Please model this.
Amino acid sequence: MNASTRTDNTAEPDGVVLSARQIGKHFGPIVALTGVDLELRAGEVTAIMGENGAGKSTLLKILTGDYQPDSGELRLGGEVMNFTDPAQSRAVGLRVIAQEPEIVPHVSVAENIYVGAIGHQGLLFNRAKLERQAAADLATYGFDRIVSPQTIGSQLSAAQRQVVEIMRAVIDKPRVICFDEPTSSLGDEESALLFALINTLRSEGVAVGYVSHRMNEIFRLADRITVLRDGKLVGTKAKADTDHNDLVKMMVGRDLSQLFSRERQVAGDPVIELQDVSTDDVSNIDLTVRAGEVVGVAGLVGAGRSELMKAIVGDLPVTSGTVLVKGKPVRFHSPADSIAAGIGFAPEERKAEALIMQRTVRDNIVLAILPKLARGFFVSEKREKQVAKTYVDQLRIRTPSTEQLVKNLSGGNQQKVVLARWLAHSPALLVLDEPTRGVDVGAKAEIYSIIDELAQQGVGILVVSSELPEVLGLSDRTYVMAGGRITGTLDRSEATEESILALAMTDTRASAAL
Ligand SMILES: Nc1ncnc2c1ncn2[C@@H]1O[C@H](COP(=O)(O)OP(=O)(O)OP(=O)(O)O)[C@@H](O)[C@H]1O
Ligand SMILES: [Mg+2]
Model:
């Protein structure tokens, strides 16, 4: 291991390796950052928190040279840096794990890891050696359980892409490494491996930056926490000097006391009924959602929750059983069929499955309602803009206008665009898979109140979430899944974290297979 770059990691006082002073950055009329200071210290994890659009990813992209700041100064080991290209920051030991890893689609994991790695170029000429080295490096961190060196880039899941991106950075033995919401695409096992890796890096004296919306991760990993709001620095605190409520207050700057406010009326007729439904992944599912009800689906990773949702919306085939929408039997052959039947779906992987990144906020919002807006063959642009504007305001989507490209929105605001599309569609049933993943506390509260409001308007809502407090807070009834089956149904009064977990760990398929 090349330790020489790390021993002199602390050229400034207090072990500061990287310091950013008074950083400013704007994109056209949008001020993304003003006067932001950040310090990353050797052997410490500094969390960077803030609501969606606060400027966290922009700050990290400035550290790498992906973006050039309008003002301010960056120092690494006490020396002023002016990166104009990410290759320059890599060369001096600074790495950022992006929110959206770029993977070369047609080459293997091993090649993806070592392309561009400093001092490893020789490996790229010898496939056997390359794969051996990749296998060994993956095994060092336990990632060999997640991804194999031979897999081709285009076949990787979101979690595997993230692991490849992390490995790329770690083998370069960086002095500074920053993670941008790494766990938003990771399952529990991968997350646990990542936390172990971060602890190793810390003990080796690396300066770590960590962006996340998840409080429990922050309190588990961070030594210090820097909070941004609206592109400005709110402050930096040692973990011991702050707590959950304090951080929320710093991030949001407003009171969030009604986080789970609910006013539910009596449920109406069923909007969807599944009777003994099976697919390739799930078996014998009985499930009902009534008008005005919020129904939760809980379960561990791999329990079949997302597969069930995809079957409901016609994205995966139902192999047996009956599906009734508003009492009538249906058989969907594609998501277009379910949309026509009044079902809206916000999938888990919103980037890949729900949004057209290269199109505007307006296009993405009106997508599902174009037939409704049309007068003859003609859809008026003015009408589209009005509709889009209504939802941008209602959901407080942070964008300069409805004509902004979705790819330029922050992650949480992209999720709001997906929700806006289905609000505009006024569906009978809305299926939400992990609706608040990557969404900050303030926007979460807004999304909860939107869900509540929709239920009051008589929409039936089916929510999959890995966050138990979310399931408990939202659901009138919760179905728990394990091993592709429903292992229990809990009414609001019976549902607790313990009762859900007990059912989630009852894997009937595993015992049936014995
Ligand atoms: N390339 C770009 N072009 C235009 N605007 C941009 C660009 N990149 C970022 N922005 C804007 O700058 C602001 C800060 O965005 P940034 O992505 O840094 O937020 P974030 O804190 O990472 O949010 P999230 O938690 O949602 O990921 C947002 O208003 C965003 O729309
Ligand atoms: Mg971001």
User: Anything to note?
Assistant: Confidence is low (pLDDT under 50) at residues 1-7, 509-514. The longest helix spans residues 188-203.
